[in-house]
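G., the chain you wanted modeled:
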Amino acid sequence: MPITALWSTPVHTALLDRDDLTRLTDDPTQLPGLLPAGHPGRGMPWTSRTETWDGGFHAALRHGTGEWFALVVLDALAHDTAEASGALVLHDPRAGAANVGLPGLPWGRPVTVPTVPGTLVLVPGWLAWQIAPVHPDDHRTVLAADSA
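Predicted structure as tokens:
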């Protein structure tokens, strides 16, 4: 019996190559061109900001302000990449989501994405996210962007 996705939530992750990361660092307006072919966000205007997450930084639950949210790690200093220091943690904010136990559905449990340079995460704007506490000796520089 096939598994049916009752709550289809498109989440895209990728590791950008050095050239794409350099282009994006120099000109954040290049973001739509780096999204997957056919993604609806490619044709939308985006607003972005650069954030620095230094040691001790963490963020409680947040979510995007547009239809789509993207986060790109531009630079990172991490002493132990196996730790969750500065990781992006995705959460389903819908009521009852934590109680979902159906196989094949990722929501109900947080999904953790390590933040290494070049990491691109693209999610619907309604999806909640947070930043795990950054180790005191680590830092991240990220581009956070919302579609209009």
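Residues 18-26 form the longest helix (9 residues).

Shout if anything looks off.
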